[in-house]
Amino acid sequence: MQKKDAYQVITDRICELLEKGEIPWEKPWNAGADMPRNLVSKKEYRGVNPFLLSAMRFTSPFWLTFKQVKKLGGGVKAGEKGTPVVFWKWIEYEDKETGEKEKVPFLRYYTIFNLTQCAGIPEEKIPALEEKTRSFNPIEEAERIVSGMPQRPTIEHIESQAYYRPSNDKVNLPKKELFKSNEEYYSTLFHELTHSTGHESRLNRKGIIELNSFGSHNYSKEELCAEMGSAFLCGEAGIVERIIENSAGYIQGWLKRLRSDKKFLVHAAAQAQKASDFILGRKAEGVR
Fold first, then answer.
1. Taking the CB of residue 142, how many other CB atoms lie within 10 A of it?
2. Total domains present in the chain
3. Residues 100, 237 share a domain
4. Are 196 and 263 contained in the same domain?
5. Using alpha carbons only, how large is the chain's radius of gyration in Å?
6. pLDDT at residue number 80
């Protein structure tokens, strides 16, 4: 029996899942204690805030205001952006007609930073957490794909975020043991490696070489390209079923922003195929 084309299998499966509706996206690695909390007060964030904070790609559950960071003797790392959280504040006012005083809730927001975005905070001020680590077992075919990538960028496991940085051509991931499964580690690595193919020394893709703001058209297309590229590569490595629903959920989130662009998915898929072909050391045919 002839083996089905991996690209077509993955594309068809993603389309099936997308047609069923949105699939929630979750981080593929563990974050120590699950609930986001303030480092100083130790209180867990409530209401919508846990969802806002858990959606960010940080492994630490601890958050601080800028003033709290400074008071602890630390600072926010250069280039880091805060995350807004909301709270209800009760405002007292006097009814002009009756003279009675009443309290009404008023929604306010402020900006906080994850502990991993900060530096210089003394270790004794940070509560110890039992990391939810697991034994990491390399997947042979996935390792072969990574090691065989031409012009591969530097891959590090230093910071608690997953990202590709074009300025120094480096991919960073959380520690392998923090990922919930071996498959999700490779899925995330393939996502970032797909981003790296856009570097000017490789495929020179607009979504990487041009500075794009979060949620913009090119940013969204680049994210979709990276996740589809990851899905293609996972198909090549034989780890499709473990990660396909997460990929579909991630893709669904970006498609919501650009439903009016009929060419968006087709173009992103073409770029993803070209990127994965590059990683696999194949000559792309019919892809521009």
1. 22
2. 2
3. no
4. yes
5. 22
6. 93
Are residues 81 and 51 part of one domain? Answer: yes
Q: Which residue range is the domain that position 99 belongs to?
A: 37-125
Residue 157 lies in a domain: yes
What pLDDT score was predicted for residue 12?
61
- Are the C-beta atoms of 16 and 116 separated by less than 8 Å? no
3-state helix/strand/coil string of the chain: CCCCCHHHHHHHHHHHHHHCCCCCCCCCECCCCCCCEECCCCCECCCCHHHHHHCCCCCCCEEEEHHHHHHCCCEECCCCCCEEEEEEEEEEEECCCCCCEEEEEEEEEEEEEEHHHEECCCHHHCCCCCCCCCCCCCCHHHHHHHHCCCCCCEEECCCCCCEEECCCCEEECCCHHHECCHHHHHHHHHHHHHHHCCCCCCCCCHHHHCCCCCCCHHHHHHHHHHHHHHHHHHHHHCCHHHHHHHHHHHHHHHHHHHCCCCCHHHHHHHHHHHHHHHHCCCCCCCCC
d(CA 198, CA 204): 5
The length of the chain in residues reads: 288
The two tokens of residue 148 are 């065989």
120, 160 Cβ separation under 8 angstroms: no
Judged on CB neighbours under 10 Å (0-12, 13-18, 19+), 107 is: exposed
- The predicted model scores a pTM of 0.65
Same domain flag for 146 and 210: yes
Strand partners, 65: 112
Burial state string for 144-162 with b = 16 or more CB within 10 A and e = fewer than 16: ebbeebeeebebeeeebbb
Q: If the chain, 288 residues long, is cut into consecutive pieces of 10 residues, what is the mean pLDDT of each piece?
A: 52 57 52 76 83 75 96 95 82 79 77 95 86 83 97 93 92 91 93 96 90 63 87 88 62 61 74 94 59
